[in-house]
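Collaboration report, partner site 2.

Our partner group contributed sequences for two proteins of shared interest, and the home lab folded both. The records are reproduced in the order in which they were received, starting with the first partner submission.
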Amino acid sequence: MKFEDVINLKSNQITDPTYIKKCKETLERNGAIVIDNFITPQALEQIKLEGAAKKHLAFFTNQQHNIYISDADPSYPEDHIRNKRVISSKGCITDDQISAESVLRTLYDSDVFRSFLKVVLNEQALYSYDDECSSINLHYASEGQELGWHFDNSSFATTLMIQKPEAGGEFQYVRDVREADKGEMNFSDAERVLAGDITPNMLEIEPGALVLFRGRNAIHRVTPTIGDTTRMMVVLAYNNKPGVALSASARKTFYGK
């Protein structure tokens, strides 16, 4: 499939400066932007079919982690928010399992798409990961699987919703809980989020939507999937520096290889 047949260019004029400016302003204002019907129905169907055909290849994990996705800090008690454990469970197929002819690869490798992202995300350049696993990931969340509350280590995330579950699987977030670059962790508000004392925002994401999200200082989660329909979501991972690769131990942890 050609690039022109992947993105719904009539609705999403990603080379038009006015459209790009509007997207950038929305992301800067809200910390997130959901662009509905970003890919065409034909492209969405092809990705869904590839995802269904390759689900048996997915590496499934059920992990406990703290909200910072980091090692525990022994200077705090085990039940302190710095060390408190949450659960994430999902399946994933990796870049090396995405076919060379995949719609996802056409989109990910497109200079036009990458130029659009670069401006909206306010990045000087965007590069693929320098390993065989990380650039394109297709995630699966079956009944009961979820992503626990956490902060991202990267400054932005780029995702595509492919298939919604019957219920659950909601993307919830609370903005500006911490200021990571200044070392301001704001443990009290993070504790309140996990306790349910702060009502999170929710993104309404339909299949075919592109989502850009700044999760470094916004705590977020995906609630457990309900029903027999698997939630399928693609992560299109870029770096603002060349030559970045996950370590062998990280690849083993996240991808099982």
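Second partner submission, folded after the first:
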Amino acid sequence: MTDALTVQVVTPNGIKYDHHAAFVAARTKAGEMGILPGHVNVIVPLEVDELKIRRVDDENHVDWVAVNGGILELKNDVLIIVADSAERERDIDVSRAERARIRAERALEEAEKVYDIDEVRRAKVALQRALNRINVSQH
């Protein structure tokens, strides 16, 4: 057992996060999951939500990352998250996220008016992603 996790968040656009951590919290399809060094190896699907990463360099230093779903793989204290998109708290363009939220809310209203189930689902996912980015930006 080591005293740190190596944490990487990878998207099709490259590595978005790469540090050592003492603790990581993530929301999986089965619920909230906390990971400490020495955790059993696991592969789980993630929800659209935030990652909370407590860094080893300072116990009060927490990094927040907005992740739009993906897969979390932990093997021998190396935690890799593969996601379609991810943004660190400091990199989120809040005004862009707010515009995305407004677009998604409007799309959801329109889709519900015409009872288009597929469009309702797409709009709900877009809204969830925008709200996740906004929430992470506020940490």
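Feedback sent to the partner group on the second submission included the following. Residues 66 and 133 are 6 Å apart (CA to CA). DSSP finds two helices and seven strands in the chain.
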